[in-house]
Amino acid sequence: MHHPQSSPTKVALSVAEFCAQFSLGRSKAYEEIKAGRLRIVKVGRRTLITVTDAMAWLTGHACPLVAGA
To answer: Is residue 25 within 8 Å of 19, Cβ to Cβ?
Structure first.
């Protein structure tokens, strides 16, 4: 019996994909990487950002809600 293949869920983004997804410039992304605020994974020459690390970076940049604002 043949099962239709579903496309796998992406677990990592290239720097270009990360920038497009989060509306961030390439220079700013590398600035965040250099400052240690955004983790990367090197696979050969490729630089990847896991979706988990991308979401953690985004959560770390969330503005706190101010009561009564």
So the answer is: yes
pTM of structure: 0.77
If phi over 0 gives left and psi between -120 and 50 gives alpha, with beta otherwise, what is residue 36? left
For residues 11 and 51, is the Cβ–Cβ distance under 8 A? yes
Classify the C-alpha dihedral 52-56-57-63 as positive or negative: positive
Q: For tokens 């293949």, what's the residue?
A: 5
Statement: 12-60 belongs to CATH 1.10.10 = yes
pLDDT band at 14 (very low <50, low <70, confident <90, very high): very high
| Residue 2 CA to its chain's centroid (Å) | 35
Helices (H), 5-66: 15-22, 26-34, 51-60
